[in-house]
Amino acid sequence: MTISITQPPQVAWASGQFTNGPLIRKSTRLQNLTHVFMDEKAWLACDPQQIVYDVEMVDSAPIAGALYTGVTHLQPGKVGDEYFMTRGHFHAQREQGEVYYGLRGSGLLLLQDEKGTARLEPVFPGSVHIIPGFTAHRLINTGNDILSALAVWPCAAGHDYAALTQGFNLRVVEEVGRVQLKEYHHD
């Protein structure tokens, strides 16, 4: 019998960079984040080509039982007073959960259930976040460096961005040099 040893993908914990694997890379720019930030005028004044976050994923077969693994690299910055953040989403198959692991930088993980109840968890190197099913989630970079987090989720989960057309109920802004929370009421 011949046994082969295959080198698996690797992630550099300090940077979150993947090696040794088929990767999918995607950049999300400000122009892709229409109606995500509270201050529409400030968003329109920004460079639409500015990259807000990059995602690197190990290319996995989207079959039942398989898992995706990826790293999000969220840039520091703000639109108006609101910190850069990912679009955020529910899973299309709502019952599917996800795990985040903080690699570098500092920020927050915003979690919101289907009733609109929101909570925040600090993200930092070594933090572990268990995101339960039926929970929308978004990363927010409140630091001065790139915020990187490794994520693992079921391939079958999918993404449902449309369910959040009114956005999340909490926003994270900088006021008087400090991180502040604001309730966000949809007009």
Q: Could you characterize what this model shows?
A:
- With 187 residues, the protein is mainly beta.
- The protein has a single domain, classed as Jelly Rolls (Sandwich).
- 3% of the residues lie in helices and 44% in strands.
- The strands form 5 sheets. A 6-stranded antiparallel sheet has the order 3-4-5-13-8-11, with no helix packed on it. A 3-stranded antiparallel sheet has the order 10-9-12, with no helix packed on it. A two-stranded antiparallel sheet has the order 1-2.
- It is globular, with a radius of gyration of 17 Å.
- 26% of the residues are buried.
- The mean pLDDT is 92.
- Belongs to the archaeal-type GPI family.
- It catalyses: alpha-D-glucose 6-phosphate = beta-D-fructose 6-phosphate.
- One of its GO terms (cellular component) is cytoplasm.
Briefly, what is this?
Its EC number is 5.3.1.9. 3% of the residues lie in helices and 44% in strands.
**For the residues shown, what is the average pLDDT?**
92
Strand neighbour order, sheet with most strands? 3-4-5-13-8-11
Do you know the CATH architecture? Sandwich
> Structural class of the secondary elements?
mainly beta
What value does the Rg take, in angstroms? 17 Å
Number of helices, where a helix is a run of at least 4 consecutive DSSP H or I residues = 1
- The secondary-structure element order is EEEHEEEEEEEEEEEE
Distance between the termini: 67 Å
Number of beta-strand segments: 15
GO molecular function: glucose-6-phosphate isomerase activity
Pfam family, one: GPI
Enzyme class: isomerase
Catalytic activity: alpha-D-glucose 6-phosphate = beta-D-fructose 6-phosphate
